[in-house]
């Protein structure tokens, strides 16, 4: 059991019959009334963000999780297949367990979260940034915008379509922020 004073970003707790990771928390001590903790929790089963306020001192069940390095191998009709990078054991996951599955390409390194009490797979996390090649985009024409933040759609090698700046061309490799699903920079 942990108290609200033990909260930190990344901590996994059991709450409302589900497992949640603390994304954000803030201890608040108002001038009048008891202290409380405002949190943003991310469900490991559905990926939804839940905002919740806990009274100060509330006890919750913490969950021990382990992160293991895996490599994405391929997708078939049964799911996504990953291989542990040291033991070479393979695990298969469904789409629901993987955030941003459409940004993964074969050979991509990821982290898979396991609950230590029963070795159950909880989720699959991509690295914060991935490099993907642009397979199709319309050419950007100089001077066709009134603002400096103009963008155009681009199809990437995984099949996902994202907005990119006008200067990005076909066969360019770009860095994508997987947390925001946005263009970050062009890779040389």
Give your account of this protein's structure:
This protein has 188 residues and is mostly beta strands. It has three domains: 2-62, SH3 type barrels (Roll); 65-125, OB fold (Dihydrolipoamide Acetyltransferase, E2P) (Beta Barrel), CATH 2.40.50.140; 129-187, Nucleic acid-binding proteins (OB fold (Dihydrolipoamide Acetyltransferase, E2P)), CATH 2.40.50.140. It is 0% helix and 54% strand. Strands 1-6-2-3-4-5 form a six-stranded antiparallel beta sheet, with no helix packed on it. Strand 7 and strand 8 (79-84) form a beta hairpin. The protein is flat. The N and C termini lie far apart (49 Å).
Number of domains: 3
Basic shape: flat
Largest sheet: 6 strands, antiparallel
The number of strands is: 16
The CATH architecture of the largest domain can be given as: Roll
The percent range for strand residues is over 45%
Spans of at least 5 consecutive residues whose pLDDT stays below 50 are none
Radius of gyration, whole Å: 21 Å
Percentage of residues assigned to helices: under 10%
Q: Strand pairing plus helix content: what structural class?
A: mainly beta
Report how far the terminal alpha carbons are from each other: 49 Å
Give me the CATH fold name of the largest domain.
SH3 type barrels
Strand order of the largest sheet: 1-6-2-3-4-5
The CATH top-level class label of the largest domain: Mainly Beta
SSE pattern, N- to C-terminal: EEEEEEEEEEEEEEEE
Mean pLDDT: 89
Number of helices: 0
């Amino acid at each position: 059991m942990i108290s609200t004073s033990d909260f930190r970003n990344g901590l996994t707790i059991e709450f409302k019959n589900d497992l949640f990771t603390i994304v954000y928390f803030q201890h608040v001590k108002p001038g009048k009334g008891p202290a409380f903790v405002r949190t943003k929790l991310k469900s490991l089963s559905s990926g939804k963000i839940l905002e919740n306020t806990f009274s100060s001192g509330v006890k919750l069940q913490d969950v021990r999780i382990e992160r293991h390095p895996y490599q994405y191998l391929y997708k078939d009709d049964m799911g996504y297949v990953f291989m542990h990078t040291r033991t070479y054991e393979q695990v298969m996951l469904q789409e629901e367990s993987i955030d941003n599955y459409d940004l993964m390409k074969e050979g991509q390194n990821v982290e898979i979260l396991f609950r230590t009490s029963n070795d159950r797979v909880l989720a699959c996390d991509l690295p914060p940034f991935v490099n993907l090649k642009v397979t199709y985009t319309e050419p950007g024409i100089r001077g066709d915008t009134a603002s400096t933040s103009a963008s155009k759609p681009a199809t990437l090698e995984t099949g996902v379509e994202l907005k990119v700046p006008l200067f990005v061309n076909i066969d360019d490799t770009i860095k994508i922020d997987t947390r925001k699903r946005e263009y970050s920079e062009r890779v040389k």
